[in-house]
Amino acid sequence: MAVEVLDEAGVRRALTRIAHEVVERNGGGSDVRFVGIHTNGVPLARRIAEAVCRIEGVEAPPQVGAIDITLYRDDAGRLGATARLEPTDIPFDLTNRKVVLVDDVLYTGRTIRAALDALIDFGRPAAVQLAVLVDRGHRELPIRADYVGKNVPTSRSQKVRVELSEFGQTDAVRIEEAGDGSR
Amino acid sequence: MALGSRHLLGLENVSATDIAVLLDTAESLVEVSRREVKKLPTLRGKTVVNLFVENSTRTRTSFEIAAKRLSADAVNISTSASSMTKGETLEDTARNLAAMAPDCIVVRHPASGAARFLAGVVDCSIINAGDGSHEHPTQALLDLLTIRQRMNPPGGGGGRDWKDLVVTIVGDILHSRVARSNLYGLRTLGAKIRLCGPPTLLPEEFRSFGAELYYDVGEAVKGADVIMMLRIQHERQMGNFFPSLNEYSRYYCLTADVVAKASPDVIILHPGPLNRGIEIASEVADGPYSVIMSQVANGVALRMAVLYQLIVPGADGIRGSEVSRTAVTAADTRAQAEGGDEVRTALRPAAPR
């Protein structure tokens, strides 16, 4: 049994609000660079970056980076190398920029820990902020998000499934009980 | 480990799927060499031994850099500095190394089958870095990666299929492990293969690979998309196979005139070291069609991909059906059938000889 916690409009509103918060907190968007974590974080980063451009009335297409954290995971041994590596591509210099790291779901915090390690290998940003579509709790590391689309209390046995139009689905966030989803 | 085996002994029985996994992984790792910090933490705490019982600069350095970029500890052993000069056998050397619990041994050896032999003796991953005139799988894989990059340029239009590709391999086919590994890999992927060389170095048996044989280099490269030149190993006794180096180069040297007969966007590969003026003219080696330096750069990424796919554990036997016949020892097959590391450990005392 799956419960929908965000529908298409909900995802859109959450990302628009995050974009407004990014602009407000950083005094505009010109110094900010967005980096998405594969897979879902990349289109989310792109959408937030585009929203920031709309808010600021900037025409230029936003530069969005993508990182794959597979090789930085602390549990690579347990998951195995079955996951396909996605290309890491950061087409700009991070040094002295404010970087907003974007992911779909914040859970244990281990993915973000790995992403921070990966990011630092590309330069020394002035600041790193974290934006997530869903914060489901159960942190195992001292990590918190600066921008949260929706806080969703979950139990550890549940799964949070994020579907995005970029991958041929309708935008939605659902909570699934263990056993009824593949993720 | 996501491959059908925990060793890479050759490409003879590696499936097209596994080749694609390795090339895709390597493609994602090419970018690491362009970073400011060229290091990933992935293989932290793992040990890779490079056991080179035959000279090599490129391959050994490439493996060492690849291991280090993944944060593995790399130990190099070369013949001149090893106990093998004191008469120790390969098996004893390997057993002693294995007792120090490395995660992977990369082996180069003048005897064909040395890597496969070691895989049966020790309990860690074995990567064949060239065994006699048998196979040199990582060289072939990096050649395939280089070819694939040119077939499907990033951001460019429609990619080409391996089946539409004509690949000509020229030189000492008989003794070349690079040629043999490439033959297996290209055959698996479905490319059209032409082989060219003096009849003494290109026996009729090679037709059984599904290749066309040519004795005239001009004919062999006509319309070819890829030309792969092999090194004439003149330091080994080649005197019986052709009258003189001069004569060889007159008939088989890749000159600009020969290249002109190939496809207009041909690429030229050479595994190195180059014999300039013998099998390849300098104007060609340094010319616009040469991708020799891309091969070397890709070598590091490809070897990182192989180390990563073989050493990172956890998915043993996920594709048991694709486990290759020769690339796997009996112990492997049993461990995979019964599922996992405990079994492998249990089998250790009775490792097959």
Structure in words:
The complex is a heterodimer of chains A (183) and B (353). By secondary structure, chain A is α/β, with parallel strands linked by helices. Chain A has a single domain (9-155), classed as 3-Layer(aba) Sandwich (Rossmann fold), CATH 3.40.50.2020. Chain A has four helices and eight strands. A five-stranded parallel beta sheet of chain A has the order 3-2-4-5-6. In chain A, strands 1-8-7 form a three-stranded antiparallel beta sheet. In chain A, strand 4, helix 4 and strand 5 (127-135) form a beta-alpha-beta unit. Chain A starts with a strand and ends in a 7-residue tail after the last strand. The mean pLDDT of chain A is 90. By secondary structure, chain B is α/β, with parallel strands linked by helices. In chain B, 37% of the residues lie in helices and 13% in strands. Chain B has 13 helices and nine strands. Chain B has a five-stranded parallel beta sheet. In chain B, helix 4 (114-121) links the parallel strand 3 and strand 4. In chain B, helix 1 (16-29) crosses helix 5 (137-151) and helix 3 packs across helix 4 (114-121). The radius of gyration of chain B is 20 Å and the shape is globular. Residues 314-353 of chain B have low confidence and may be disordered. The chains are: A alpha/beta (183), B alpha/beta (353). The A-B interface holds A 68, 71-72, 76-82, 84-89, 117, 120-123 and B 1-2, 21, 24-25, 27-29, 31, 35-37, 39-42, 70, 308-309, 312-315, 318.
Question: Which key features would you list for this structure?
Answer:
heterodimer, A: 183 residues, alpha/beta, Rossmann fold, five-stranded parallel β-sheet, three-stranded antiparallel β-sheet, 4 helices, 26% strand, B: 353 residues, 2 domains, four-stranded parallel β-sheet, 13 helices, 9 strands, 13% strand, disordered C terminus
Termini Cα gap of chain A: 14 Å
DSSP helical segment count of chain B: 13
Strand order of the largest sheet of chain A: 3-2-4-5-6
For the record, what CATH class of chain A applies? Alpha Beta
**General shape of chain A:** globular
Mean pLDDT of chain B comes to 85
Major sheet details of chain B: 5 strands, parallel
Largest interface: A-B, 21 and 24 residues
Count up the domains of chain B.
2
Indicate the CATH topology of chain A. Answer: Rossmann fold
